[in-house]
Amino acid sequence: MSHSDLVVLIVGLLMLVHLAIGLPLFIVLGVGSLAMVSIIGVYSPTVLGEVPFTAIDNWALLAMPLFILTGDIIATGRIARQLVRLGQAAVGWITGGLGMATIMGCFFFAGTSGSNSADTAAIGKIMIPSMVEHGYKKPYAAALAASGGCLGIIVPPSLIFIIYGVITSTSVGDLFLGGVMPGVLMAAFMCVANYFVCRTSSWGAADRVPFRFIELLKATWNARYGLGAPAVILGGIYSGVFTPTEAAAVAVAYCLIVELFLTRGVTWRDVPKLLVRSGAISGIIGPVIAFSVLLAEVLAVLRIPDRLAGYMLSIPSGYVTGVVMIFFVLFVLGCFLETIAALIIMMPILLPVGTTLGFDPVHLGVYVVCALTVGFITPPVGINLFAASAVSGVPYLTIAWRTWPLCLALALAVIIVGFVPWLSLWFR
User: Fold this and answer.
1) Residue 366 needs a FRET pair 20 to 30 A away by CA distance; which of 56, 111, 116, 360 works?
2) Helices and strands: H and E segment counts in the chain
3) Cβ-contact 56, 289 below 8 angstroms
4) Of the candidates 165, 184, 182, which has an alpha carbon nearest to the alpha carbon of residue 244?
5) What is the pLDDT of residue 81?
6) How many other CB atoms are there within 10 angstroms of residue 1's CB atom?
7) What is the dihedral of CA 419, 110, 338, 253, to 10 degrees?
């Protein structure tokens, strides 16, 4: 092992230790990069300012604060509640219907927010008290909201797909469409898992209400503005009216107009608070992206990704083994790293591996992002677990334990996405 490899190994372990004790991720990434640059001398210290600035000086990343703001507007207004009622009308008649309605509410909400944490928080605020009232154990109710929130970055529009498209030069519009069927599959698998939990354990409740077609029609009509947002966004992108980045601005304008003037779920007094709150969240994510790119740049100069990719390719494996191997790597990584950081650091390794295995670029992108979503509900970094804990008051680890049936359902759905390219390429 060379001197530089030893330094990378020691610094990497120290980064994991500091991440485990609660040091903010962007500080861990930045200080880790600084340590490698200083000790190995692979770069001039000036890159510590140049590379992070260049990383966030990107037109496509303008979508990030705008999609976050969109999610905040919807969560504050009435669109989220209307989407939840649609979910209840559609699946509330099945055993465990309220839990399924939570997942369906997350699915519909994902079509406008593009954010997993916003999805979890918004739907969780509405559905967790209702589920508890109907007999669900509170930790499991919170687990349902956290798991359903994973759909937030799969169902278009998706902030993570935009970032993936930027770093791999893949069509963002194709990634958006590629996420539709996997999102449906993941939601269906979680609903099935919830059905069995409610039938066989005390975590859930065998709640059900009579199915009324007129109620479904009424709920669909009331949710028309929420359902219309994905149609406006994707329709505008594919008709050439605006780019995926501009679609984020259109989403903000659409949701703000709907909530201010049509549903009246948001007032002008709420707007400054929404801007401040969304700006604060963007201010947390921005440095993570900047310093993730810095770390990826340092590792690339040391040829760490090239050597790891070569090692993975040297393992005798076909497509089936490759799909499972990629899932396992991303699942483990997703447990410790925030999704954006994981994407930026791992794609230089996984892109050549996926190409060699025969993955279509869009299929690979959808599969990678789907695999990383499982990390949202697995400790220690599970962001959705923290969001669900914040809105429910249930301890983070208690929720994590209750997610295991849903986590297994998600993992199975993701593996199927990897094995069946059509699910990501149906639109071609």
Assistant:
1) 56
2) 23, 0
3) yes
4) 165
5) 80
6) 7
7) 130
